[in-house]
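wait is this the right file?? whatever heres the structure
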């Protein structure tokens, strides 16, 4: 029996192969996807892509079998990054499914699904209904139609690269040397296409597609996975370093000294560039990006809009406000010109354009967007997240000059600092983020909050 609840998460499907996710589950998910999204009514086809994990081709083929068993067609784009799948969904106006487990270890795989035009499919927008049908279909078996759909194949890598280069033209920037760590993930496939010509010289690290991740996990959020990139940037005297996660939809940036540039600073810099092209637009930021982000948006004539953490919330806010751009602390970047979908590659192009259009090194340029001191995300093990959060609110909520809100977990703000605590959806953890005007204040607030989290063991990400 399939434990559907264990693998169908808030935004996608994720599980260990084959124990939790196998070809029978993928096949059932394909059939359920067609039914829930009413694909047969319109547009009649689904676009499917997959990453470099050893299990991905077979799982994607099984999903395609599930789709065609209903009479719907499949457009197979083959190997792809997640944002390349979103491009295909937007360009072809088809719902899509991407087989990847993103930054998770090699034994995992998963499915990210979207409606036509790269619109998200999450718990509240169809994923729960798909999960219910999958449980039924795996138990009872699919009921195929008399005339199954057909599978066609389409290579969209060049079209994807051309679209990104049309949005950000690097032809006029100064020559740059950039080290790129693909982590044996899909960046090793898409980066050479995107940077096939122009003034950017790429020094590749771990471009060989290998879903066993022989060099390090493809998770740049963990500092240990940036060590090789940092060393290579310093050794090569490069202008910049870029690190992509396994499915290459997130991009992390390293300056010429080998120091990380925070995703909030990248968000601020890209927001300024987009507002220069689209004056007065709204820009979305999640509630744990730096306070500098809404300040920069306002200073450059835009309207900052605060959102919950998570791509479905960001995309919903972008649609509601017609926002030109959105950024998250986790290095997900969303663009109106990219069907409101997240693409680390387009964010990387903006970063390179910002750097190459002036003469300062990256450390000086991005220092203009780093105004505060942040703790980074601290994961704290707790027995009762709700009770711990309530105790924190009781302690801080009544102090003079303090404001409290519950948009996403608990956010407590003061003139010189703020912090947010959010419960994990999948683990007994509270995630703590603290930011302040200076390091000593940040450390004081951080330690006060941690002291209230009884028996927590802290893991920095």
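ok assuming it is, sequence goes like this
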């Amino acid at each position: 029996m399939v434990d559907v609840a264990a693998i169908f998460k808030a935004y996608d499907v994720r599980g260990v192969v084959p124990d939790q996710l196998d070809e029978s589950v993928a096949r059932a998910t394909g059939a359920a996807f067609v039914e829930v999204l009413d694909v047969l009514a319109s547009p009649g086809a689904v676009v499917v892509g997959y990453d470099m994990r050893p299990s991905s081709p077979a799982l994607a083929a099984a999903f395609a079998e599930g789709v065609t068993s209903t009479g719907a067609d499949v457009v197979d784009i083959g190997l792809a990054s997640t944002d390349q799948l979103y491009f295909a969904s937007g360009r072809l106006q088809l719902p899509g499914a991407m087989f990847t487990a993103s930054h998770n270890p090699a034994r995992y795989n998963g499915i990210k699904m979207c409606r036509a035009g790269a619109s998200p499919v999450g718990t509240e927008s169809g994923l729960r209904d798909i999960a219910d049908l999958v449980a039924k279909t795996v138990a009872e078996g699919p009921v195929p139609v008399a005339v199954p759909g057909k599978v066609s194949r389409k290579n969209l890598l060049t079209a994807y690269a051309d679209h990104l280069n049309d949005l950000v033209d690097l032809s006029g920037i100064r020559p740059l040397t950039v080290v790129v760590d693909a982590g044996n993930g899909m960046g090793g496939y898409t980066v050479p296409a995107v940077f096939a010509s122009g003034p950017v010289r790429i020094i590749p690290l771990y471009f060989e597609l290998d879903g066993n991740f022989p060099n390090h996990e493809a998770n740049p959020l963990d500092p240990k996975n940036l060590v090789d990139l940092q060393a290579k940037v310093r050794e090569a005297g490069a202008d910049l370093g870029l690190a992509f996660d396994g499915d290459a939809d997130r991009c992390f940036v390293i300056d010429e000294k080998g120091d990380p540039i925070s995703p909030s600073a990248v968000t601020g810099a890209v927001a300024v560039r987009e507002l220069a092209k689209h004056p007065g637009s709204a820009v979305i930021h999640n509630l744990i990006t730096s306070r500098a982000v809404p300040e920069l948006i306002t200073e450059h004539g835009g309207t900052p809009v605060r959102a919950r953490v998570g791509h479905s919330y960001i995309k919903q806010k972008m649609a509601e406000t017609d926002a030109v751009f959105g950024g998250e602390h986790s290095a997900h970047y969303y663009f109106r010109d990219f069907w409101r979908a997240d693409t680390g590659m387009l964010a990387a192009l903006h970063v390179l354009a910002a750097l190459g259009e002036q003469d300062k090194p990256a450390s000086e340029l991005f220092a203009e967007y780093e105004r505060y001191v942040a703790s980074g995300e601290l994961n704290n093990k707790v027995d009762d997240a709700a009770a711990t959060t309530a105790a924190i609110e009781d302690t801080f909520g009544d102090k003079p000059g303090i404001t409290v809100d519950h948009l996403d977990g608990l956010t407590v703000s003061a003139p010189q600092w703020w912090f947010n605590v959010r419960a994990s959806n999948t683990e007994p953890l509270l995630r703590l983020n603290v930011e302040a005007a200076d390091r000593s204040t940040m450390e004081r607030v951080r330690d006060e909050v941690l002291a209230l989290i009884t028996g927590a063991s802290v893991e920095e990400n």
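Confidence is low (pLDDT under 50) at residues 456-461. so i think its the right one actually
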